[in-house]
Design goal:
12 strands, alpha/beta, globular, binds beta-D-glucopyranose, about 400 residues
Length: about 400
């Protein structure tokens, strides 16, 4: 039998734009309306309306934690003007989670920006740090008495890659220089927000919360043992997985490390150029792994690998996202179970893992891929907005209840 630590956080994650619906002041909304993105988020899961029902379902599934994000564009639909209705809404969201005995883990930025800020240039402009801090101050002051966990920014490198290198997400730029500026600004925004949040809690004589980012990590391997591939693995691991964390650790601005893990990445470098070293991937099905419905390799051992990579920082680690999109729900429980087995191996080998949040509680709007990929423990019927608990959710609920995986070593 596999037993997890006593106070382990068990639950799922969501992000505002992907589930709430009608985020009409967001940059994504405008991009969709202008036809720059193929799909429309529209009403998404109507979670803005149905959050109480959704959290009660999470409670019934024995979740004791839930990760959500605040939609900045709802809070500050116009520059400098904060919406009291949105503030009241998110206060209520947190209150309902507390009523359900579910620990809220709150993300401040999950890929979307208010449209007014995007029109001003977004994250690559230095002033974005000032805007982010002003927004963070507002919402943290309001929610601080009820929140013990904050995540400032979700997956900075994923955002930078899709928005500034590949150019698929707003602002659809392809510029290494802008990408670099975004990384600097996000790093700076995190460090300043970390200090700001602690200051707010101290001023209000509250117990200090735990603050981090949610960092996407992949398990990197070489497609063949040639030198360029090995060099690529070394570079990718140190740049994509560890560089940002290392910087934040240096500035003492992480109380734990939030790790999002989905898949592995196999380097198959075609040319000796830097771009190839970072971006050329194996096109064959290296190792013959099963895949999710978006074609990502399913590689549970990789969770062990990335958790062991961050062991050296001597900080608690929380798996803030891990999940599969699939049309075959039996694959989902296999996925969760195998990842939990690997998470437990990392605990046995000395990593202080404090929680596991499956992505996602609900099927949701998968950005530029629309609604087709199904990640949810709970199925959404997008015509009626009915919720249906999947079988995999029931199996996971057993683990959430007992803290054990019976029948496994
Ligand atoms: C993101 C989510 C996304 C998920 C699946 C993560 O990188 O934080 O917003 O839905 O991956 O692609």
């Amino acid at each position: 039998m596999i037993e997890f630590p006593k106070k382990f956080l068990w639950g799922a994650a969501t992000s505002s734009y992907q589930v709430e619906g009608n985020n009409i002041h967001s940059d994504w909304w405008h991009w969709e309306r202008e036809g720059k993105i193929k799909y429309h988020s529209a009403e998404a899961c109507r979670h803005y309306q149905f959050y109480k029902e959704d959290f009660r379902l999470a409670k019934d599934l024995n979740h004791n934690a839930h990760r959500l994000s605040i939609e900045w564009s709802r809070l500050e639909p116009e520059e400098g003007k904060f919406s009291s209705e949105a503030i009241a809404h998110y206060k209520q969201v947190i209150a309902v989670l507390r009523e359900c005995n579910i620990e809220p883990i709150v993300t401040l930025h999950h890929f979307t920006l208010p449209n007014w800020l995007m029109r001003k240039g977004g994250w690559h402009k230095k002033k974005s740090v000032f805007y982010f801090l002003r927004y963070a101050q507002k919402i943290v002051e309001e929610l601080s008495p009820s929140v013990n966990y904050w995540l400032t920014i979700n997956e900075p490198f994923v955002y930078i890659y899709y928005a500034y290198i590949q150019g698929d997400w707003p602002p659809q730029k392809r510029s290494f220089f802008k990408a670099y500026a975004v990384m600097r600004n996000m790093g700076c925004a995190h460090i300043k927000t970390y200090n700001l949040i602690r200051q707010i809690y101290k001023t209000n004589k509250l117990n200090l919360p735990l603050i981090s980012i949610a960092h996407n990590m992949q398990s990197f391997s070489a497609c063949s043992p040639k030198l360029e591939n090995k060099l690529a693995v070394y570079l990718r691991k140190n740049v994509f997985n560890l560089y940002f964390i290392e910087e934040l650790v240096k500035f003492k601005s992480l109380d734990f490390i939030g790790v999002n893990y989905y898949s592995r990445n196999t380097a198959d470098v075609k040319t000796p150029w830097l771009k190839s070293l970072f971006l050329d991937n194996c096109r064959d099905n290296c190792g013959g792994l099963k895949k999710n419905s978006m074609g990502w390799d399913i590689y549970p051992e990789g969770l062990y690998d990335v958790l062991m990579q961050v062991k050296k920082y001597n900080l608690p680690v929380m798996v803030t996202e891990n999940g599969i999109c699939t049309n075959d729900d039996s694959q989902r429980w296999d996925f969760i179970r195998e990842h939990l087995i690997n998470l437990h191996r990392a605990i046995k080998d000395g990593v202080n893992v404090t929680g596991y949040l499956y992505w996602s509680l609900l099927d949701n709007f998968e950005w530029d891929k629309g609604f087709a990929p199904r990640f949810g423990l709970i199925e959404i019927d997008y015509l009626t907005f009915a919720r249906k608990i999947r079988k995999s959710a029931q199996s996971y609920a057993q683990v959430c209840k007992t803290g054990r995986l019976d029948g496994y070593e």
